[in-house]
Amino acid sequence: MFVPLWDLNPLENIRFQWVTVGLILANTLIFVLFQTGLFFPVPPETLVSFAIIPNDLINQGYLGGAGAKEAARSIAVPERLTLLTYMFIHGSFLHLAGNMVFLWVFGDNIEDAMGHARFLLFYLLCGIFAGLTHTFMQPASNVPMIGASGAVAGVIAAYLMLHPNVRVWILALFRIPLRVSAGFALLVWIGLQIVNLVYDQGAGTAWWAHIGGLIAGAVLILFMRKPGIPLFDRSTGITT
Length: 240
Known about the structure:
The chain is mostly helical. The chain has one domain (2-224): Up-down Bundle (Rhomboid-like fold), CATH 1.20.1540. Helix content is 55%, strand content 8%. It has 9 helices and 3 strands, in the order βαααααααββαα. It has helices at residues 18-35, 44-49, 54-62, 82-85, 93-114, 116-137, 149-162, 182-199, 207-224; strands at residues 2-7, 167-172, 176-181. It has a 3-stranded antiparallel beta sheet with strand order 1-2-3. It is globular, with a radius of gyration of 18 Å. The protein starts with a strand and ends in a 16-residue tail after the last helix.
């Protein structure tokens, strides 16, 4: 596994990645203020209210029945709304940090290719589709799903389709700095998601959400990028 550090891909159409930074700040503030217990401690049953529970979303959110875990929820968050709220809650600091690092490195260039408002819509749509994919592939599950991984997977797919040749610095095996192409790094990441989906389904990670986010990002970038933004740009980025 690896951690992306930074890419050599300057912004061309916007001055600053306001939405990318705003999403990172929102996720981080929610975690620090409400999940660490340092400021406004929130009990687990309240956090569950904002998570996707597939069985509840299908039976209560779409068919009108009673949610399987309704009694465990301390506040009444409409099931459909959890398709948005779940992606702003994280299970641990490492869970948060992993998602936010990928968003920081790759999100700015997708925002640059779309513009601020369209990128925010893109991010949320990827997260929603990721949540729906997980739900319909695990319809009987009562395990709460949280985290921005599905939305971030959409960003990864879009970056791969726009800038596969840009050079990216990564920390391979969490300790070895390497400069590789974005295409190589992100295809390795996508391959790991597929392997984990097949062989590691009991690990507690919503691998189907990652796949759903990837599909959404790959499709949406076709229509949501600005006119004149090419797919599979051959540029390698800044030469250093």
